[in-house]
Amino acid sequence: LQMRIRISALLVHSKRGLRGAPHYSPPVINTRALDVAIIGAPNVGKSLLTNQLVRAAVSAVSSKMDTTTKNVCAAITEDDIQLVVVDSPGTIGITHARKVMGLPKGDEKIISDPEGALNRAEHVLVVQDATAPGDYIHHRVQHLLHRHSHLPTSLVINKVDLVSDRTELLELTRILTKGTVAGREIKTAQTTIGRLGKASDTMTLHQDEVKGRDEEWQRKYRAIIDTPSARVGFAETKRLFIEERGWSQFDAVFYVSALSGEGIEPLREHLKTLSTTRRWRLDENAVTTKTPQSICEESVRAALLDTVPSDMAYRLTPRVSEWREDGEILQVVVDINCGKERIARNLVGRGGSKIIEVGKRVNNHMTSLFQRQLFVRILVKFNGKVYNS
After folding, report:
1. How far apart, in Å, are the Cα atoms of 51 and each of 94, 106, 298, 337, 338?
2. Coil, strand or helix at 31
3. 30, 19 in Cβ contact below 8 A?
4. With helix as H, strand as E and coil as C, how does 211-228 read?
5. Helix 46-54 to helix 264-273 angle, to the nearest 10 degrees?
6. Which residues, 6+ apart, have CB-to-CB distance to 95 below 8 Å?
7. Could you tell me whether strands 374-382 and 385-386 are parallel, antiparallel, or unpaired per DSSP bridges?
8. Proportion of the chain in helix, strand, coil states, percent, rounded to 5
9. How many CB atoms sit inside 10 A of residue 206's CB?
10. Bridge-based pairing state of the strands 32-40 and 123-129
C-alpha cells in the first residue's frame, strides 16, 4: 500500500511537471523483538521453562521424557517487546525414537526439530538439569552448538529448587562453561547464585574448542559439523564429544526453577535487553502459533504419559473429534483409539478411574490456558467402539 501511494505521488508530480521525487520517510518502528530457541537433553525442563517465560501453559508437560515431539512456538509481548520462544524436543537419537517411542520410519521431526529451532533463532538457551548425575553438556547439544557457533547463547541451569547445597552449582557452572562466560574467566570463589555474566563484545571463536586435537579427530569433526544433526548418528556424536564437557561461548548463566518460577524474571528481563528494533512476527495478543485443538491433544498425551506405562502412552494418538461452543461453555471430545483390548483396559482403569483422572487434568490445563469454562470428554475406543471397563 505504501509503495502504491508513493508511485501515485510520483505520477501526480510528473504530470504537474515537477522535477525530482517527493521526500519519502519510512514509518518509524518503535517495537523490539527477539527470537529465542530452547534446546537441551530430554527431561531437563525445557517445556516448563517455556511456559514460565511466556506466562502461559502453551507446552504440554509431564514427568516423562519425550513429552515434546515437535517444536512449539510461544510468545509474550510486553513493554513493546515481543519474545518468540521455540521449545524444542529433547536431543535423542533415531533408534530411541523408533524403538522406545514407536515413531514410524520417515517421521523424524523429533530428531530434526531441535536444529530447526536454531535456524531462525537470534539467541539460544541451553537448559541443563542441576540434578542430573552427569556434569557435562549432552553430546547432541554439543553438536548443535558447534554447528551454530555464530549464535549467542546463555546457559540455564534448571531445577535448582531440588539442590540442597547450592554452592555445588558453582563448580558445575565452571565445568559447563569451561571457566569462561562472555569471554571472561569466571571466579567461583565468593560468588553468589545469580547471573554470572553479561553479553560481551568479545567472544571465543568455536575453533578454539578443537585446538590441540589430533588430525584424525579434526577430520571427523569437520565432517560431522558439516552435516545436519538429524543425519548424524547418535553414536557418532557421542564418540566425537566423549571428552567435551562444556562450552566456552556462553554470554550468561542463569539459575532457575521452572517449577516454582524462581529466577525466571531475571532471565526474561535479560532476553528483553537483547531484543532489537524491528516489527513483531506475531500479533501482540498471540501466545502461540499452535491451534487450540493441537494444544488439547498434546495436553491429553502428556496426561497419558503420567498415567499409563510409557511404552503404551508413546503409541497412543489422541485426536479431537468434536469442538463446539454451547453458549459460554466450550465442549471438546477427544478420541483415543487402541489397537489392543489390554491397552484400552489399562488406560480406562478400574471403574474408569484412570481416564477420569486424565480428563480432570486436561480440563484444568485447558481452563487455565483459555481462561474460559470448558468441558473435555475423553473416549477410549477399541474396534471402533467406546470401551468401558
Report:
1. 27, 30, 14, 29, 31
2. coil
3. no
4. CCCCHHHHHHHHHHHCCC
5. 70
6. 234
7. antiparallel
8. 35, 20, 45
9. 17
10. parallel
Three cell numbers at 234? 547418535
Which pLDDT tens digits describe the chain residue by residue (389 residues)?
Answer: 333 333 333 333 333 333 444 555 556 678 999 999 999 999 999 999 999 999 999 999 999 888 998 999 999 999 999 999 999 999 988 888 888 877 777 667 889 999 999 999 999 999 999 999 889 999 999 999 999 999 999 999 999 999 999 988 999 999 999 999 998 887 654 333 444 443 333 333 344 556 667 788 888 889 999 999 989 999 999 999 998 999 999 999 999 999 999 999 999 999 999 999 999 999 999 999 999 999 999 999 999 999 988 888 888 999 999 999 887 889 999 999 998 999 999 999 888 889 999 999 999 998 888 888 889 999 999 998 999 86
CA dihedral 340, 341, 346, 352 (to 10 degrees): 130
66 three-state secondary structure: coil
- Of 160, 167, 202, 165, the C-alpha closest to 181 is 202
Rg (CA), the chain: 25
Reading the block at residue 26, the C-alpha cell is: 519510512
CB distance 173 to 188 below 8 Å: yes
Which residue type sits at 25? S
Cα(288)–Cα(256) distance, integer angstroms: 23
DSSP class of 288:
B
pTM listed for this prediction: 0.85
Q: What is the DSSP letter of 384?
A: T
Which residue from 196, 126, 188, 187 is spatially nearest to 157, judged by alpha carbons? 126
